[in-house]
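User: Structure please.
Assistant: Input sequence and predicted structure:
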Amino acid sequence: MYQHSPLLQCLLHHAEATPEKIAFIVDGFEVTYASLLDSSRKAAALLVDIGVKPVDRIVLSAHKDIEFVYLYFGAQILGVTNVIVDASSNQERLNYIEQKTQPTCCFGYESQQFTSRGFDQLELDSYGAYKEDSPAIISKDSIAEILFTTGTTGAPKGVCLSYANIFGSADNVNSFVGNTTDDIEILGLPICHSFGLGTIRCNIIKGTTVVLLGNFANVRQFFKAIEQYHGTGFRVVPAAWAYIRKISGKRIEKYANQIKYIEIGSAAMPLATKKEMLEMFPNTRICMHYGLTEASRNCFIEFHDTEHLESIGKPVCDKVDVKYFDEGGNEVPVGQRGELCVKGNMVLARYLEDSDTAHAFYGDYFRTGDTGYKGEDGYFYLLGREKELINVGGKKVSPMEVEDIICSLGVGDCVCVPMKDPDGIMGELVKCYVLKDSTSLTFDEIADMLQGRLENYKRPVAYEWIDEIPMTSSGKKQRVNLK
């Protein structure tokens, strides 16, 4: 049964082998694997009742309600495509996504244009469990879900992921992180993005217990969950980690012997912060991934590999290949800058719009739009997005490199962008926005300390305080908004 979905097969296996094992804990409410499968089948029956058919699309607003999980798996049982949206999306974005996907029904919010139901209106207990298999037209290559990029530039793109993609990504990650069926994960990430949603899949494959938290904003609640449920792992974006440290200092160190793994991703992290985490968690497996919605979590570095902390690591497993190509689609030599491109079982099937797919690949390799190089040591290094590189007199400057070094001086956070050379000689120069109240250093002191640490052309020529650094909802800096 469920031959189209390896993920559903895992859920079915755990529901039969360990039916009383707790799959999810939400606000103290426990859901066993047997109950999870039964309720997901009831959700499938509800979808059939309201006229949803295989290959139709439904929009799911990603609240951390257990009903979201039921509908997510219920749709997969039928071969229905889930379109995942952020619960905090504004009306303009929702309208855009709905028009692009033409859903049969929207769940978790009130649509202005399409049939919709709130999660509190489902009444799943009034349905019998749907136990039929999906039709033959649904295969592992069928589209399981569509996520729209938050992106730093341009209109959102619909990323179409197959059943094989979403399983492959999670299975790859598990092979690197090393989590087991005995783990208890505290999930504070938003589940509307590939990192958080993919984490749910990682745990379903392993048959672990997931404690769903609203977010990391309530640090006290996060710590309470670690203690109450004896959490053994969590995943976090750098911005959330910085917030946890700011609010609670090093209190989280008390759980160092309890936490077996931490996964970090979605944005760059300063080298100094990585080293500090190593000191705080000397026996914890601290993994950081590089990835994007289209090619989820394709490279990993483990922080105890201290000699390569400035790299993005190596491909997550032997099912993934990473290369750098030039503008003609030719692989560049080791040490030479190129565009990072990825091939693997988790790379998107296609974009929703054919026009977006047309220029997204070099052969079988997906073009990430990020630039970098492969070192002599075999590790992969990132310089930044091609569109964000600063062209100083023909020399390309990575804003990430400059930001990392400035933060190492004792600056909480900053963001570097190009500014026009007022003399018209260099074309562009580097400007740095420093997060207000994140440092006691003056701009002059920062400039002085950069001497000897950065080449002259990489050093900012102008500084400005900023109250808040613009970021996407997944924690990526939106440098384009400050150009």
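The chain has a mean pLDDT of 93.
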